[in-house]
Amino acid sequence: VQLQASGGGLVQAGGSLRLSCAASGCTLRDYHMGWFRQPPGKDREFVAAISRTARTTLYADSVKGRFTISRDNALYLRMNSLKPEDTAVYYCAADFARMAEVVRSRPADYDYWGQGTQVTVSS
Questions:
Q1: Which of 35, 116, 37 is nearest to 71 (CA)?
Q2: Which 3 state secondary structure label does DSSP give 114?
Q3: 50-90: pLDDT as tens digits
Q4: What's the pLDDT score for residue 121?
């Protein structure tokens, strides 16, 4: 599974961005999917996850109410009301759906990763 994240950029605080993650060489239908981010000088952290059916979603408290994860043949992250602390490299990841509707938040639980896209929020 090869994942390609895109859609990052520079935005002012309060602005919005939409990240996308596409797969090549396979379908994502057998995978729960997640977004993670790595702020400068910090560890990778969970942002949001969605089950393979899209019935179940999970969000980090820091983004709840501002970010929306969705999927069709690709994965998306709609980010509204962006804050400077959202500045990070954002990664998409795929977790083979061993258990239906059980989405996970630990990076170690994910099998495949995209290359990351930079999001910078200026104050």
A1: 35
A2: strand
A3: 999 999 999 999 999 999 999 999 999 999 999 999 999 99
A4: 98
Q: Give yes or no for a contact between 2 and 113, defined as CB atoms under 8 angstroms apart.
A: no
Q: CA 97, CA 30: separation in Å to the nearest integer?
A: 6
DSSP bridge pairs for 17: 79
> If DSSP codes are grouped into helix, strand and coil, which group holds residue 62?
coil
| DSSP category for residue 65 | T
pLDDT tens readout for residues 86-101: 999 999 999 998 888 8
Cα angle for residues 113, 25, 7 (degrees, 5° grid) = 50
End-to-end CA distance of the chain, in Å?
A: 37
